[in-house]
RNA sequence: GGGCGAUUGGCGCAGUUGGUUAGCGCGCUUCGUUCACACCGAAGAGGUCACAGGUUCGAGUCCUGUAUCGCCCA
């Protein structure tokens, strides 16, 4: 039953109208009564609030939504929650500036705290004016502030048409996430997978925090090679080249490659350092690169990660001089005992930044004659914290680690096996996982010396001596989580025992943000919180994400799930590519070429933008192309117009439409359904293989042929007038075929252009197209019988050949053809013949239409399928109705 | 330095396990059109598939090497 078809169709306003309807009707609400095999669960990336959503988000989240909508139409109940990532520095800074506060974990929680500011118009509050608050208060303020971000993000996602169940949202700092992260950590601790160690690690002096391998970024950093002499007992000078002469006082060995002939005679001997006269050994290690610099390197504790390797493998002493604040130690180290060296250190180096210390040392080396030539400028790779702007130092500190296979071959093999078990889309993305896991050189450092984040849920006893006993942490019960050890006392203790002998101290650190976000399946799935939900959704089906965070988010999630649940967290990982700007560069804010997503959606319409996104395959970078969106918009409008047309033949609103395939009797109509059956098979197979692009392509191609050829061919017959086919069944056949095809094509297109398809669906079908069943080919094939799609192709070509006559004669397509003869290739002849009535009608052939077999070499298959018009006579063009 | 991906008409992309004459869209040219659609329709022009070797009866497709671009890791 056709309820209504608008006179004038439009895409405008569909986004808002259907978002409201889908919400009101709970179209995407998750039905948790379904069992695991009836559910498709998606572990969606939580976007970072405080950041902003950009075109790349729209792009990749659309890919996920296409899958979600497809799976839902396949009859699966889709578990598709959305989260907000508010961990990390950007949120911390915004909270500080917006409310004029700073987090001080040493403070107690204040009930009902009101911050001094409510927004400062973008101006920063000076650190001195910031009011210190407890971590719990800080987190509460964060939740207050990010509520606005979340509202804006949700509005964008709704407009884009993400079929998320909006009653299922979470924040990575909310109580559930904190409890989950802490519980998982305590489980790791209990099984010995989390441990603390006093070890050299990367340290950011600006942010005053330890940094994990996964957060490293190697950048070019300008420096100078200094050629510096060490001294043998006999006075011979051994030259090394270093970019960090300020670390000479921290030198513990000179190291050359074991096969390097130049240094064979030195191995096993000692040299003394210039200026400081510290005696150090000359050692061999394959890590030394003979063709780099002098071929012999100064090993300091610690200048870089190679030093750490040498220190560990050659069991060298620790002689650190750089402190956590990035300055040289204020005490003269005990190993520097030569009179002049000691004095020099004390007067020129103590407390200086590494930069100033370098200047002082280089001046002194020049004076003592130990500097050979002048420093030579160079670009070297230095390790940076991805958010920092100073090279990382390496300092020794006590930190918590979680085992990730970086130090344990057996665990590494298990994790590599998990990688093989996971279906990556596209498959080659697996290599990035394997390279990363294979290249790990340490466990996962999870402690962060930050204030804002999920607290490490531990306290430590304070001994009678006043010393803190880190070896026997006090662990909270899982029921008490989340806890904040800096503002809560452990069970059995009171707050007045904090920091006093016989009492306790709380661990002041927070966990790495990945330590929380690696648990998104557990957070959304109700792990240890909602056992019923958990067994319905876990392990999950799909993790969509970007390729840049395979080493972090994907890997850490696999680690947690493997350790905690002995399972892979999901079956599939769908990796989206980048958005490139017209210069084929990654789009970035700094380049100022980022378009605000909401503007994009408003300007082009959501279906158009989704079409652009869906036209790019997983893992493939895509150009930001407005042209592609315009094509999507054209498709959406065409769907509206063609549908309006197809539904109008029965008489428009109020007319009955049957979808009974038995009524499709004409060969041409059956041929069209045969073609559609094939499209259904191809689109389904493509979507099953996470190849949404192919599904869209075959559907779209068929749809355009349907509009350009089929619709034109059957127009007159569907109207039921004007041809020699006065037979009502011919008209009914066309009308039924049109409706059946429309019904199927709307469903095929629904995951891609959900708004236009839903609009059409609402004109004549019940419920939402997004809860309609995904089409299957069998009924179409049954209706098509033995009809072959070549009938449609051939008839379309014949029509095109007639059009060409008119086009070349530069006359209107409405010009009648008084008579014509077509030479048709043998393979197409029967097809054209069986559709001759429709071809004549669509081509406006009023007289004879002769069909003859084409001769050898006649016609070009690439042009109108080889059909050639051998004779034609045009009638008078129709008079124009002007005015 | 290692790894992964890309290179097809002016632009953006398809091209399934090697198989007739390499497709699609945009743009372009010409024409048409207001009773589905001007956010339109029809017809047309336009390509030594980055380069060099090799395997094969046959290579855009497989192998080797080179170049350029992008990303990741050292």
Written account of the structure:
With 883 residues, this protein is α/β, with parallel strands linked by helices. Among the domains are: 193-205 and 394-421 and 430-511, no CATH class; 219-392, Valyl/Leucyl/Isoleucyl-tRNA synthetase, editing domain (Isoleucyl-tRNA Synthetase, domain 2, Alpha-Beta Complex), CATH 3.90.740; 793-883. The strands form eleven sheets. Strands 8-7-16-18 form a four-stranded antiparallel beta sheet. Strands 12-13-11-14 form a four-stranded mixed beta sheet, with helices on one face. The chain is elongated and about 115 Å long. The model has no long low-confidence stretch (mean pLDDT 88). The chain binds one RNA strand of 74 nucleotides through helix 10, strand 26, helix 17, helix 19 and helix 23.
